Amino acid sequence: MSIINKAAAIGGGVIGAGWVARLLLNGIDVSIFDPDPEATRKVGEVMKGARRAYKQMLPGGLPKEGKLTFAKTIAEAVADADFIQESVPERLDLKHRVLAEIDAHAPANAIVGSSTSGIKPTDMQVAMKKHPERLVVGHPFNPVYLLPLVEIVGGEQTFPEAIEVAKELYASIGMKPVVVRKEIEAFVGDRLLEAAWREALWLVKDGICTVEELDDIMRYSFGLRWAQMGMFQVYRVAGGEAGMRHFMAQFGPCLKWAWTKLMDVPEFNDELVDLIATQSDEQAHGLSIRELEKIRDDNLVAIMEALSKQNKGKGWGAGALHKDYTRQLAKLAAKKASAKVTAKAEAAKPVKKAAKPAKAAKPAKAVKVEKPKKKSGKKKG
Amino acid sequence: MSIINKAAAIGGGVIGAGWVARLLLNGIDVSIFDPDPEATRKVGEVMKGARRAYKQMLPGGLPKEGKLTFAKTIAEAVADADFIQESVPERLDLKHRVLAEIDAHAPANAIVGSSTSGIKPTDMQVAMKKHPERLVVGHPFNPVYLLPLVEIVGGEQTFPEAIEVAKELYASIGMKPVVVRKEIEAFVGDRLLEAAWREALWLVKDGICTVEELDDIMRYSFGLRWAQMGMFQVYRVAGGEAGMRHFMAQFGPCLKWAWTKLMDVPEFNDELVDLIATQSDEQAHGLSIRELEKIRDDNLVAIMEALSKQNKGKGWGAGALHKDYTRQLAKLAAKKASAKVTAKAEAAKPVKKAAKPAKAAKPAKAVKVEKPKKKSGKKKG
Fold first, then answer.
1. Interface of B with A in 10-39 (CB under 8 A)
2. Does ipTM top 0.90?
3. Where is the 3-hydroxyacyl-CoA dehydrogenase C-terminal domain (chains A, B) (predicted)?
4. CB of A166 within 8 A of CB of A133?
C-alpha cells in the first residue's frame, strides 16, 4: 500500500503523465498542473496505455483509480499534497520558477521530487526559499508506469531524512529507489546512456550501420543480458571460474586502445537528424508510435513477469520487485471489491468515506521531515 | 536444420566452448583444438551449462548431440570441416599463426569465422596465403549457446559470397547475423559496450555508486528496454506523437554538455581492480560463479521465451527468433526419436547411418564459395 495520500504532478509531458498514471493506478489522488491546452488529451493517452499494461499485470482487476484533477495554478495543485513530482522541461530558469512556486504553496511536510535527468539538485534548490531541504531528484525512466528504477539524488541542502522518506514514497508505488552517493550532473543512468548514445550517433553518421542494425545488435545480445544483470555482474560471470579479477586483467588494457570516438562530439546538424529520422521511419516497418508503444509495454510486462518466476520461484531483479508490486496492487484491488460489498450492505446509510477505507485506515508516513531540526545550509562550500 | 556438416573450433575458452556447445546441441560434429591441458574439463563445464539451458527450452527433449573430438593439431581439427571458428586470445601475432595454419589445412570451401571482438579482418587475413577470401569476423556474445547475435565483418580480401554463406551458416544454428557495413576496430557491439564500460569505471572509481548500485540502475531501467528494442527505437517511441525528429531536437543539444568523462581513460591500476573486484564479491551475496551462471541462463531463456509470445503471438525481436530456433531444434529432436524407432524396427540388420538420417538427406550448402571466381586482392590500397 502506498504511503502517499495526495500527490501533485507539475508538468504532464511523457514523463509527468507517466508519473500521474503510476500514481492513479495505485489508487492515489493526483492534482496536476500543466499550462499546455492539450494536456488533458495527452495525459489521457498515457493513462490509456498505462491502464492497458496494468490489466496485463493484474488479470484479476485493477485497484480503484485515484482521482485526477487539473489545477489552474501550481499553488492550487500542491495545496494539500504530501508528495509533489516536478517534470517540467530541462531548463534551469524554468525549474527555478516552478520550484519556487511549489515551495511557497506546498505543505511544509511535503516531499518534492524532480524528474530532471541531469541538473544537480543543489543548483535547483537555491530557488526554494522556505524548505529547500525537502527537494530530491527522483529521476525515473520512461515508461514511468512500468519501469521501476528511480535514481534519488540529494543536493547540498537536502536533509538525509528527506532522502529516506523519498525512498519510502517511491518504493510504496512499486519502484526501485537507488540513492546516488555523490551529486554529479546526469547522475548514473544518463551518464551511461549518454556514453552509448554518442557512440551510436558516430556509428550511424559514419555509415558503419543503420539505426535498425544498431538496435538489432543491442537487443539480440547485451540488451538481453542487461535486463537481468548489470554489466559488472555479467562480466563477473563471463570471467568464468577465475572471476572478476581475471576479467579485469584480461580486458583492462583495451581501455587504452582509442577505439571509441567519445572524445569528440558528432556535429549535430540537420543532415544527421535527417539521416537518423529517415532510418528510424524505415525501421518502424509501418508500425505507428502508438502500436510500438503497446508492443514495448507488452514486452516489458512479459519480461518482468518471466523474471518474477526465476531464481527458484523467488524472482530475480526487476522480476522479484514485479512480483511484490503486482501482489500489492492485487491486494488493493481486493480491498476495492470488499469496499463495494460493504457499501452495498450499508446501502441504507450512505457513507461517502466507505469508498476509501484503505486511506482512512492508515495515516500518512510522509510526515517524517515535517519539523526539520535545523537547516544545515551548504555542506561543501 | 543446420547446413553445417562438420565444424572445427580452434580455442576452447569461454567463447570457443560456447561455440562448441551451440554446434553440438544442433547435432553437428565438432573437432576442437586447444593446447590447454584443462581444455577437456573446461569445455565439459560449458557443455553442462548449455545442456541445462537447452533442456529448459526443449522440454520435449534435445536433438541427438554431435560428436566432439579433441584434435592434437589445428591441421587435424580442420581437415574435413566446412565451418571453422577461431576463438584464440586477442593478439594479432597469435591470430596470424593460427589462421595461417587453419588456411593451410582446411578444405578450400570451408568458411573461417573469427570470434575476435575487435581486430579488423583485413589485418588478420594477410596471414592466410591460400584463401584469405573466406575469412569473416563472426563476433558472438557470451553465452554463445544462448545469445543469438553474431556480428559479421568482412575484410578487404573477403568475398561478398563468403559473407553470404557465413550469414546462412550462423543463421542455421539459430543465430541472428548482422553484417557490419564498414570495417572498423571493435565493430558495433563492442564500441557501445566499451563506451558504457569506460563511463562505468569512472563512476565507480569516483565513488558515485558501487558496482551493485550501477548494475541495479541498469537492470531496473534501460536494460529492460534494450532486451526488446534498441536505443533508437526506444527513443522514437519516447518522442511520443511527434516522433524521432522531436526527440532528436529535444536531446541533441545535450551532446555538447561535457557530462561524460569519456575523453579520459581512468588509470587502470591495482587500486581500481581491487575496488571493483571487492565490490563485485559483495554484490554476489554469496552466490558462486556457477550459480550465477545458471541464474543468468535461466533468465535469458525466460526472457526470450516471454518475448516469443508477444506481438500477437508472432514473437518480437530475439523472441521471434527464439520461437523459430526452438521449433527447429524440436524437429531435429523428433528426427532422432523417429530414427531410434527405425533403428529398432530394423534391429536385425544394423545400419550405422540410420543414426544420422538428417545429415545424409541434405547436402551441405556451404560449397557456394568453393570455387571463388578470382582473388580480388586489396580493394582499397
1. 13-14
2. no
3. 187-254
4. no
